[in-house]
Amino acid sequence: MAATTSALPLFLLALLFALLQLQPTQTASEPNPTPNPWPLQFHSVLFMNRSGTLQKVDLWYDWPNGRNFNIIQNQLGKLTYDIEWNNGTSFIYTLDSNRECQVLRFEVGLLRPDWLDGANYLGQKYIDGFLCNVWEKVDFIWYYEDVATLRPVYWVFYTGYSAHVMTFEVGRVLEDAKWQAPAYCFSDDNSSMVKSMGDGIAAAPGSFIRGLTNSDSPPKSLLAS
Length: 225
Hints:
This protein is mainly beta. The protein has one helix at residues 2-22; strands at 41-50, 53-62, 67-74, 79-85, 89-93, 101-106, 120-127, 130-137, 141-146, 152-157, 162-170, 194-198.
């Protein structure tokens, strides 16, 4: 009986050692993971949180056609449409009876598909129940990507403005007719609403990059010029 008792801990130690050998580990010789480039076209539903202000955003990214569309539903509030073109023009409007529209001119275009190139790898962390690789880019954004599927799960700007990715549909494209801003965006009455934003980022709360304050500017290295 004594021999059986003393052998039991040795058996457990051997079993534990064997299990540890089965766990994948990253050795010093292995390079750090790099973020997956964005698909050239995709549709994603995001839940955004900015200091307790919640928004649901339908994001349509269409790099080959030089356009990006954010349909922004504020919690119990206004539905806003934000079409961004790679020539630096953005139309931010509503389709309700108020017929609001603002046209913005930027010196830079859209986020490139490889906008995360050169990001600093921070390791792995669980977020929203997913094990993610985490990167930081120029102290501006922290980006979480699912280890298993390479899909984005979450990102947060240095201001604390965050996005939780609810769906991510690669290859989905919004029909062309939906990309046309309403006629009142082009009327003479709206000419006073055309603004040149230069290097600044403003307006449309909820858009991926531009949902910050007027004084915030993403580095030009993230955007197409």
